[in-house]
Amino acid sequence: MVATFGEKIRELRKKAGLTLEQLAEMTGSSKSYVWELENKAPPRPSAEKIDRIAKALGVTSDYLMDAEADLSTAEDEAFFRKYKGLDPDVKEQIRRITETFKK
Asked: How far apart are CA 98 and CA 11, in angstroms?
């Protein structure tokens, strides 16, 4: 199934347990603006807004914009982007945790 930009935002927002107002706060938007993105076709958000929404929802901007993009891949890419910016000590802790899953 091909999902639209707005459908993806709504689905990810609900999956995260966020209200329209909460996502709006996280992205520096208004509740009505987020509603419009979810419900109007075609939405016309700026690249900055798309990036903020993607980060808040734990995916990539590319995922939101590509109707056929894979959610799992987008979530992984978003995670690795966050990981790259972490403190080296935190990265080491994560590495040790993941080692326990190899057994």
From this structure: 28
DSSP letter (8 states) at residue 86: S
Q: How many residues does the chain have?
A: 103
Output Rg (C-alpha) for the chain, integer angstroms. Answer: 15
Closest by CA to 32, choosing from 41, 20, 43, is 20
Q: What is the pLDDT of residue 103?
A: 61
Reduced to 3 states (helix: H, G, I; strand: E, B; else coil), residue 1 is coil
66's tokens: 């590509």
The string of DSSP codes covering 3-63 is PPHHHHHHHHHHHTT--HHHHHHHHT--HHHHHHHHHSSS----HHHHHHHHHHHTS-HHH
**Positions in the chain short of pLDDT 70:** 1-2, 103
Enter the pTM of the model. 0.76
The Cα–Cα gap between 79 and 45 comes to: 23
